[in-house]
Design brief:
Two copies of one chain form a homodimer.
Chain A: H1 6-21, H2 28-35, H3 39-46, H4 49-61, H5 64-73, H6 78-95, H7 97-109, H8 113-139, H9 148-164, H10 166-170, H11 180-202
Helix pairs in contact in A: 1-2, 1-4, 1-7, 2-3, 3-4, 4-8, 5-6, 5-8, 6-8, 6-9, 6-11, 7-8
The first copy, chain A, binds a DNA duplex (30 and 30 nucleotides) through helix 3.
Keywords (chains A, B): DNA-binding
Organism (chains A, B): Pedobacter cryoconitis
GO molecular function (chains A, B): DNA binding
Chain lengths: ~210, ~210
DNA sequence: TCAATTCAATCGATCGATTGATTAATTTTG
DNA sequence: CAAAATTAATCAATCGATCGATTGAATTGA
């Protein structure tokens, strides 16, 4: 029963609150109360409210690019590479939907320049990897020539769309993404759809 | 040179500010200053800050469903119907990207129940129309049997993705979505991509 | 004249941030 | 080793600013 240090508990509380209430909608007092820390501890450790936010984002981004890069260096077929990227990307986003929502909100606001830049850079890197994979696939003749950037928007947009409104996808069925098992089912369903979609779309017709 | 009444100018200013700064990030004082109205005019006409927000959303939603319903009743091929829906949906979203972003942010926050419900209802209706079209297409044998809800997520997600980060799609090219002409080019490119994608994906293999 | 608008002034509440004091932990020194 | 000095961590209290909302008086137009 080891309790986390104050710094960590502030980060955890902040992440939960930011995810649920948004950045502006979360007060430092809430973060303090939720984390059991004194208000001034927030400024002591992170300088400001925005500092907390940036740190939450940093934790999330860390390791994202590494996974993609390792896939890119695999010596496998372009389609297999793309499928791997889709699987990794989907798993990561679906494993923490609220945080992903938060990042999307902030990137669409462009109100806090520093964190917006950080997010865009991270996303840019990810997109570049996917773009290279598809480009190579087309050059090798493994893929049909298509609008690469648009296909990337389709892949990312589909995942985001499912993550943002899972109830709109699953309503009518018994899925409840708050149940881990059901979220896993939804994730698998999403991956299966994207695999089928990009395979059908990218496979050249003889 | 007819100047709009205070009520209207408040709505316009509020829409612009909410779109740029978010709901929490916009103060009633900003709305008052931007619209040239006195602060208390906001409460006089709309009761509260949230009242203004709801009215902005209402204006946007109005007419959305009507367009979809008219398409659904057209006596044309399923694929033509779907293409029409894609065109209409894309045009509408791309014609006012900031407002669309704002609605996405609010729907992902679920913090203001009334307006969240309103948005979800509107979106639900739209999705139902698309779902019916695809269902009919599959039943007629015009479409391959696929995961309908997931394909809808793909269509909506792609459009949203392009609307949310156009710079990530167009960077490297000369497109600037702040120039009307360029935004139109991007819109056409998006529609072309989606048409190609759904056609390839839904057309049964003989 | 009278109801509909408009306004300056102000309400209590809450915001993010800072202060100075206090305690806990660590390092330095004799 | 133990006392002293230093640093890190925590706290209650409070700062000025701003929040959304309200008041009551002034102004307008029919």
């Amino acid at each position: 029963m080891e309790k986390p240090d104050k710094r960590t508990s502030i980060l955890i509380a902040a992440q939960n609150l930011f995810s649920e209430m948004g950045y502006e909608g979360t007060s430092t007092r809430q973060i303090a109360k939720e984390s059991g820390a004194n208000m001034s501890m927030i400024n002591y450790y992170f300088g400001s409210k925005e500092g907390v936010f940036l740190e939450v984002i940093n934790e999330r981004i860390k390791g994202f690019k590494a996974q993609l890069d390792s896939i890119q260096e695999d010596r496998i077929l372009p389609l297999e590479k793309l499928v791997k990227v889709i699987e990794g990307y989907t798993q990561r986003i679906m494993s923490d939907i609220p945080l992903h929502k938060m990042m999307l909100r902030e990137i669409s606001l462009a109100q806090r320049p520093e964190m917006c830049l950080k997010l865009k850079d991270a996303m840019s890197g990810n997109m570049q990897v996917i773009e290279n994979i598809i480009e190579n696939g087309i050059a090798e003749g493994a893929f049909k020539p298509i609008d690469i950037r648009m296909l990337i928007a389709t892949i990312m947009g589909t995942i985001t769309s499912v993550a943002t409104m899972p109830s709109k996808i699953t309503e009518g069925s018994i899925l409840d993404i708050n149940i881990p098992k059901d979220k896993e089912i939804l994730t698998d369903r999403l991956i299966a759809h994207l695999k089928d979609l990009v395979t059908t779309y990218l496979t050249p017709q003889k």
